């Protein structure tokens, strides 16, 4: 399986509210185009839009589409809303996966919650679960290579993490030690990351 993340930055104030408890308020919201390939023999790519909300103490990374589907399913009339989306999708000659809300990456990743750890809520099939992970577990090696990503000069860093060789491009001009998924620990926002197969 190949994976890649590419940032789109929105500099706007965005408050991340949890219905039960406010953990932090986000001062920066980033969007990452997430592309993956389940089977490298079958050259079919899938995509997602990851949202990274960064607060003073905690950050949260999640799928826009999964959050959309969860939000709709929490409404009392969710079935009618989903039926309208599906009817629209099936009325077209070619169905686009963005025509109807459905889950993609199921994980919600809270970095530095609890302090010094990551809390992940995830699901496999119909079973949901929560687990803790190490914060900034990547052992990055910063390289001399540089390139421009979204008009920001970025420096390359590489690491071996969870069985994959990763390359990340981070922007020191955005002094936030964070990035998509579980990535972080560099002296700047991770703007792009990909594994060896890109």
Name its key features.
198 residues, mainly beta, 45% strand, globular
Give the DSSP E fraction (strand runs of 2 or more residues).
over 45%
Structural class: mainly beta
How far apart lie the N and C ends? 10 Å
Number of strands: 11
Question: How does this structure look, described?
Answer:
- This protein has 198 residues and is mainly beta.
- The protein has one domain.
- 12% of the residues lie in helices and 45% in strands.
- Strands 7-6-5-4-3-2-1-11-10-9-8 form an 11-stranded antiparallel beta sheet.
- A hairpin with an 8-residue loop joins β2 (26-37) and β3 (46-55).
- The longest helix has 14 residues, at 78-91.
- The radius of gyration is 18 Å and the shape is globular.
Please render the helix and strand layout as text.
Layout: E1 2-10, E2 26-37, E3 46-55, E4 59-63, H1 64-73, H2 78-91, E5 108-111, E6 117-124, E7 127-134, E8 141-149, E9 152-161, E10 164-171, E11 189-195
Short overview:
This protein is mainly beta.
